[in-house]
């Protein structure tokens, strides 16, 4: 878990915003209490980011997909060059 991530600090500030407001604007809460709540929110924000990242890491694709401009096609045949287009013949039913 990284605490120096700017997003972690922003989330912690949002979570502890009411306490910071009461401490530094309304001045009816001790600044030490607001700082303690901010540090607790910092740990909670880092844990939330870690959980989301670990969940999202499991959804990585197994193998990268290949494009038509790659050197080799999906079936092992050589891919078309950039100026060449491969078209499969179409059979039409008799009327």
Question: Which secondary structure elements does this structure contain, and how are they paired or packed?
Answer:
Blueprint: H1 6-15, H2 17-26, H3 31-57
Question: Can you offer a commentary on this structure?
Answer:
- With 95 residues, the chain is an all-alpha fold.
- The protein has a domain at 1-35.
- Helices cover 49% and strands 0% of the residues.
- It contains 3 helices and no strands.
- It has helices spanning 6-15, 17-26, 31-57.
- Helix 1 (6-15) crosses helix 3 and helix 2 (17-26) runs antiparallel to helix 3.
- The protein is rod-shaped, with a radius of gyration of 28 Å.
- The N and C termini lie far apart (69 Å).
- The mean pLDDT is 80.
Summary tags:
95 residues, mainly alpha, 49% helix
Instruction: Estimate the mean pLDDT confidence.
Output: 80
Query: Number of DSSP strands?
Result: 0
Which oligomeric state applies? single chain
Number of helices: 3
Name the helix and strand elements from N-terminus to C-terminus, one letter apiece: HHH
Helix amount: 40-55%
Largest sheet features: none
Task: Report the radius of gyration as a whole number of Å.
Answer: 28 Å
Overall outline: rod-shaped
Terminal-residue CA separation: 69 Å
Uncertain runs are: none
What percent of residues are in strands? Answer: under 5%
Structural class: mainly alpha
């Amino acid at each position: 878990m990284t605490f120096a991530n700017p997003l972690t600090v922003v989330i912690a500030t949002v979570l502890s915003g009411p306490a910071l407001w009461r401490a530094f604007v309304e001045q009816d809460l001790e600044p030490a209490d607001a700082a303690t709540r901010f540090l607790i929110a910092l740990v909670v924000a880092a844990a939330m980011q870690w959980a989301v990242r670990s969940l999202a890491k499991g959804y990585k694709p197994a193998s990268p997909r290949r494009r038509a401009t790659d050197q080799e096609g999906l079936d092992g045949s050589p891919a078309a060059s950039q100026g060449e287009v491969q078209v499969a013949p179409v059979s039409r039913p008799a009327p």
